[in-house]
Write a structure and sequence with these properties.
heterodimer, A: mainly alpha, B: alpha/beta, 6-stranded mixed beta sheet, 27% strand, ATP-binding (chain B), nucleotide-binding (chain B)
Chain lengths: 406, 507
């Protein structure tokens, strides 16, 4: 076998096997593209129906989304796009990974916030913060090592907590038969109210501050490094790309991923085939929920360590919910999730400047919702796509008698 | 008059010509059988006729008029009806609701259930197919469910009835009843297309028989002018040894033993009521019985899907009563299942991914946490050649294979796992002659290699041909033990139905 061949290895890294064939369904790419396209068209109609110029709206939406280089504010917009996208990709990966195992983890939202609050805690908690503070001073010009370590500890602790939070739902499902959708959605609200109605206004707030000021701020050593001054772009986008690669590797290169996909493919027919081969379904589902929750929590730690530096009192829900849409548009494939996350990030970034031009932000939400809606209708989209393709095939290859008539 | 004519129909799937220029015609009031191995193109052809697939080329004529059938609705309008192999009944609906669904009698906007029941009763009387119009479909035995399917098709005015392997799920008695029904329909002038690979049945019921092989029509023969052997030759293209050769192997030590085993089914009802038996190395123990007499529950307990409520179970002398499937596998249990789609294979997985499932954690298929898909691929390539799995591309999904090739893949996987005890649960169910023969050969090889084999089957010829000892199972108990040379199909059949249970006392 020509394993040493560089091209072969390169192709294999992208899931193309050594026979040069990629056996993934090409519709997996076309369905999300067409859904997004349809959503953009419907969005135009809606904007036009409201008496506004859809072309001007889209020019603003995409012009200021950070996707297209150029313009005075491009660097800032690009940075905002990546900061937002990093969080959406993290929650998107979380939902996508669970999907692959046949589980609908609707609890990315709660896991995101659990990750955020735990990262906050390890960011400011004196024993940790002081240690790394002292280390930073002691290391002098190598102080960045202390920053890396402190940031890593905050992120890892956040991910462990988020993973454990998701694993609770997994445990209830495996041991008690509690539906995973119900389990995760309940835990969302438990997490949210534990944090916003207690931790973030009680034990984790400075005593001298007012009721509305949020938690302590994290130490400087815990903050994510900025990588594109003067914008606030930080390392979160790099970390999330690493997480996307890790997710892909887990799914397609490891024994655990092999088992998880086998479970996911048979989830609606009782998972008997993998079970009969001796695969421990319960354990894998628990692990899967843990990984899934950890990914969502990674997004939560970005929110704190890269953006807010404390758990703010103004935090609003939505990152986990958005992750569901991202996973759907990305067809639950890690690369697809990255692209979908960037698309949603762009819409959200551009929406702000659209709003400045007196076009409501809601329109970008409509487009987003439509895209997800069309994806949800993908059975229908696939059906018509196949029909169109078939018709084209018969048209290019007409029967002899029809040719004679023509 | 020709009820249906097929003119040079072809169907191309990517990389596979499923139907290659097939032509035949069916007279009105005829029972026309189409036989062929699994994957020969029978189902594709029927799906074309019934509007599920569009043909790549060729014409269809119904009642001597050229027609285009683009959907099932078109087919129904042309008075065709398909009785599917897997019934499409809603278990929680009554027989009447199931029959009228999609075309319900109504009073204004309300469903007129009373009238529907009357209509169903009239219809069932007219064609003398007895069903209880108000029973829940899910409570009915399989044979009666099929009757409901037939009534549903007749109510839509079908004149051409397509039966897709209708006997696959039936007991021998139910098959006899079905054939009576088919004859009755024939006398009423209905045209019947009967798809099967059971030659005995075809010879019994059909007027003419078309044989397909690898998508091509091999010929059409009159039943009167042919024999089972000739049909088998046409189907597989060579002489098939339907007789199973006797293999004598010295019996080894006990591999599997159970004593007074009690197993509950999913509803908590005791389905296995105290079974005791053992299986030695180099021995095939056959369990004969009519479906639903506790075989499924017994297998579930033996593979660790459910734990027995009481009794003992040992594999190689180790207690295996409360263990997981993984532990049983580790101790040397292999399992061939009849339920290939649910239990045997992960259908969306490729051949190579399926080929190693169960040993994927061992070297060389994985190192630590990493799967080595190159090694997996090499292994699968080897198995595809060894077991002649076709088409032999290891990147094809298991779901794209025909039933026979799926079973070969399962055999390839299970027999390559380290094992000394093999559970073969209806290993030839739904398989054609060629694949069946292959399975028998492999099982006999296993026996020669000194493995202990437990064969659970509904096919008496299989039980008699392969087993060294036969246990007859009836209502969760062993009601008789015998050997193939001391019994006949008839005697076994009686035992299976619970007749002459006192024989147990004698043996």
């Amino acid at each position: 076998m020509s394993e040493s061949n560089f091209t072969t290895k390169f192709l294999k890294a992208f899931g193309i096997d050594n026979k040069g064939r990629n056996r993934r369904d090409p519709l997996n790419i076309w369905v999300p593209l067409i859904s997004v396209g349809l959503a953009l068209i419907v969005g135009m109609i809606v904007i036009a129906a409201s008496g506004r110029n859809p072309f001007r709206a889209y020019a603003l939406l995409f012009g200021d989304s950070g996707l297209i280089p150029g313009g005075a504010a491009w660097r800032r917009e690009f940075a905002e796009l990546l900061i937002k996208s990093a969080m959406y990709i993290a929650t998107g990966l979380s939902v996508a990974l669970a999907f692959k195992g046949g589980l609908f983890n609707i609890g990315a939202e709660g896991q995101f916030w659990v990750g955020a609050i735990v990262a906050t805690f390890f960011g400011y908690w004196a024993p940790v913060a002081h240690t790394f503070g002292a280390m930073y001073v002691a290391l002098g010009s190598f102080g960045w090592i202390a920053q890396l370590l402190h940031g890593a500890i905050c992120i890892i602790m956040g991910m462990l907590a988020g993973g454990a939070w998701a694993a609770v739902a997994g445990y209830l499902y495996v041991k008690r038969g509690v539906n995973i959708v119900i389990g995760t959605i309940m835990l969302n609200w438990i997490a949210w109210f534990l944090i916003t109605s207690w931790l973030a206004i009680g034990p984790m707030t400075p005593p001298s501050q007012t009721f509305t000021s949020g938690t302590f701020y994290v130490a400087d050593t815990a903050k994510l490094l900025r990588i594109m001054m003067p914008t606030r772009l930080n390392t979160s986008i790099l970390l999330v790309l690493l997480a996307a690669y890790a997710t892909w590797f887990l799914l397609y290169k490891t024994t655990v991923g092999y088992e998880i996909r086998a479970i996911g493919y048979t989830a609606n027919i009782g998972m008997e085939a993998p079970r009969a081969q001796g695969i421990n379904i319960g354990r894998r589902i628990l692990q899967l929920m843990f990984f899934s929750g950890a990914l969502a929590a990674l997004g939560g730690s970005f929110f704190i360590l890269g953006l807010q530096y404390q758990f703010p009192n103004t935090a609003t829900m939505g990152y986990g919910w958005t992750g569901i849409g991202v996973a759907l548009i990305g067809q639950s494939e890690p690369l697809g999730v990255v692209l979908a996350g960037l698309f949603i990030g762009a819409l959200r970034t551009g929406a702000t400047s659209m709003q400045i031009a007196n076009i409501p932000k809601t329109f970008s939400n409509i487009i987003e919702g439509m895209a997800v809606g069309f994806i949800a209708l993908q059975v229908a989209v696939r059906y018509y796509l196949v029909k169109i393709l078939q018709r084209r095939r018969t048209r290019t290859d007409p029967p002899a008698d029809q040719e004679a008539i023509a | 008059m020709k009820a249906l004519e097929v003119r040079s129909i072809s169907k191309m799937f990517p990389g596979n010509l499923a139907n290659d220029n097939i032509s035949f015609s069916v007279e009105k009031g005829e029972i026309f059988a189409i036989v062929g191995e699994n994957g020969a193109g029978k189902s594709t052809l029927m799906n074309i006729i019934y509007g599920i697939y569009t043909p790549s080329g060729g014409d269809l004529l119904v009642n001597e008029n050229e027609v285009k059938i683009r959907s099932v609705e078109d087919a129904i309008k042309l008075r065709m009806g398909m009785v599917h192999q897997e019934f499409m009944l809603i278990p929680r609906f009554t027989v009447t609701q199931n029959i009228v669904i999609g075309d319900e009698p109504h009073k204004g906007i309300f469903f007129d259930y009373g009238r529907a029941v009357r209509e169903v009763r009239e219809l069932s009387e007219r064609v003398s197919l007895t069903v209880d119009a108000t029973a829940l479909a899910g409570d009915l035995p399989v044979g009666v469910q099929q009757r409901v399917e037939i009534l549903k098709v007749l109510r839509r005015g079908a004149e051409i009835l397509i039966f897709d392997e209708p006997t696959a799920v039936l007991t021998p008695e139910e098959t006899v009843e079905l054939f009576v029904t088919m004859r009755k329909l024939q006398t009423e002038g209905k045209t019947i297309l009967f798809i099967s690979h059971k030659l005995k049945e075809v010879m019994e019921i059909a007027d003419r028989i078309a044989v397909l092989r690898r998508g091509k029509l091999q010929g059409i023969v009159n039943k009167k002018d042919t024999t089972e052997e000739e049909l088998a030759r046409m189907m597989v293209g060579r002489n098939v040894v339907l007789e199973i050769p006797k293999v004598d192997v010295e019996v080894g030590p006990v591999a599997f033993a159970c004593h007074d085993l009690h197993v509950r089914n999913k509803r908590g009802y005791e389905a296995v009521k105290g079974m005791s038996f053992d299986v030695h190395g180099g021995e095939v123990v056959g369990i004969a019985g009519v479906q639903g007499n506790g075989q499924d529950e017994l297998v579930n307990a033996m593979i660790g899907f459910s734990h027995p409520v009481s009794g003992s179970m040992e594999l190689n002398g180790k207690n295996m009563r409360m263990v997981t499937t993984a532990q049983l596998r580790k101790e040397g249990m292999s399992y061939i299942t009849e339920d290939r789609a649910r239990r045997g294979l992960v259908m969306p997985y490729t051949i190579r991914e399926n080929a190693v499932m169960g040993q994927h954690l061992a070297r060389p298929f994985s190192k630590g946490i990493r799967m080595d898909y190159d090694k997996v691929g090499e292994f699968a390539e080897g198995k595809v050649k060894e077991y002649d799995i076709r088409p032999g591309d290891v990147y094809d999904t298991a779901g794209s294979l025909s039933g026979g090739n799926q079973q070969k893949l399962i055999l390839a996987r299970e027999l390559s796992l380290p094992h000394n005890f093999l559970i073969a649960s209806q290993p030839t169910r739904g398989l054609d002659v060629g694949a069946t023969e292959f399975v028998y050969r492999k099982l006999l090889e296993e026996k020669k290699a000194g493995k202990a084999i437990l064969l659970i089957s509904l096919e008496l010829s299989e039980i008699l041909g392969l087993s060294d000892r036969i246990l007859v199972m009836f209502e969760g108990r062993i009601v008789g033990e015998t050997t193939p040379d001391k019994t006949t199909e008839e005697a076994l059949g009686l035992l299976m139905l619970g007749v002459g249970n006192d024989k147990k006392v004698q043996s």
